[in-house]
Amino acid sequence: MYNPEKVTYFAETDSRNKRVKFGIKAKDRTRHVYVIGKTGMGKSTLLENMAVQDIQNGEGLAFIDPHGKTADLLLEYVPEERLKDVVYFAPFDTDYPISFNVMEDVGPDKRHLVSNGLLSAFKKIWVDAWSARMEYILSNVILALLEYPGSTLVGINRMLADKEYRNKVVANISDPSVKSFWTDEFAKYGERYMQEAGAAIQNKVGQFIANPLVRNIIGQPKSSFDFRDVMDGQKIVIVNLSKGRVGEANANLLGSMIITKIYLAALSRADVNETTLSKLPNFYLYVDEFQSFANESFADILSEARKYRLNLTIAHQYIEQMSEEVRAAVFGNVGTMVTFRVGAFDAEVLEKEFAPVFTAEDLVNLGFIQIYLKLMIDGVSSQPFSATTMAPIGKPTLSHKEEIIDNSRSNFSRPRAIVEAAIRAWHEEGAKRDFDNSRPKKPDIKKEKQIMFEELMKTEKKEVNREPQNKISLENLKSNSNRNSKNPSKENLSQLREALASIVKNSKETKTDEIVRPDKAETNTDKVNPQANQPPKTKTVEEGSKPKEISQDELINLLKVDEN
Question: Of 131, 291, 298, nearest to 204 (Cα)?
Fold first, then answer.
């Protein structure tokens, strides 16, 4: 139940040697919180303490972390009763990629918002190579794909290079302006023009698409989760965009798309009346180093989000990281402003906000965890005052971190082999393909098994050179998997996924032991490896623990999955 008076604590007063803990009321967080300060001054701890309280209080939130440390830490604080509320989005978990398609199910009135957000993100990344021509063409590519069912960012290059695919997409366009571009303008572009503008787009977008870490996430048409469901259901989304593991450009692109998708989800709340909207839960979005992800739509988010109960807490290091437009939106819309120690330039800018109580000299001389702030109190901004931030909230004695990661993988991720097979098929089989990637909550087990059978057999054929009579054929494997399956467990599917991912991952490093026919395991001992009676083992990886081993007999049993 929403309580507008609920206080989220984050600091203590330090005047007159009297320390009193204080925070911000839920109703005042709707005007957003802005935090600025040099690195190492305590910004992350402030955000962590607020997010931990939201988690413990049952609130819905998303935390976008470009460093990874806070994302890992927050998993430690999730109580047992909220384990299933968490979506842990870690792009570097390449064995189990989450599907995230920013182009999925975008209504006609929101397509330009998505297009502008993507263009802004690309422009920031390619700032030295950006041109008006590139932007014009890429804008029309994106707007065309947004109308075509099942489109992803992977389709951008295909739209420019594959005439058959392009014709099918163009035939589906309803926007007259976009259609005119493709039917009247694009057809007249000469080869030289396309080499200069079109090839430049293909080269730049290709840098992302060629990276399987990004491609396997953005190349799936159906997203693993819906942000509107997350917001209304008070779920938790923790996004670990560790730039050291993901890459700065990849992290910035993914973060920008996630923020755009959250904003779209918030705007979709306009489909309910005022009475219903007032009863929807608040959703808290935390963005550390937000300037990395702030695109042109960020100004709109700051001004419009509060109407739809989306409350932002944003932090970064210095003002020059923001564009003029975003800077104006921040200082014009943020209700609570917190500053740690800043540099001389920032101090001069911030002095206008904190004068006459504090000067620029005061701002550059703040110590560790010391802050000056203007706090929104009952809808009114307070006079500036000083405080110190709270120490980190103590960790619970029992951590469910590994369980959360496993649960998130099971519910929102798919094995890399499955994803890559679907994307590969899309490229190979033509312009429109019905991807085999229904949401993980309701997987098509029969189809998934089929792909896994094929991948297993491919791996065996490629990596293991054994006598034919000692291999299990695809047909035998299928037959074995369907025997005695009156009471199979669907939970086995996740174990099978894990086994497959491990086999694919390790196939180039070590040779798998041969798989012996169940009916020949004892009778053919004279023809097979003497160790055949000992079930050969295939390694699987469990993050944070010693690799688990699974025998081939166990693997066969895992294939006994109910297909109904």
Answer: 131
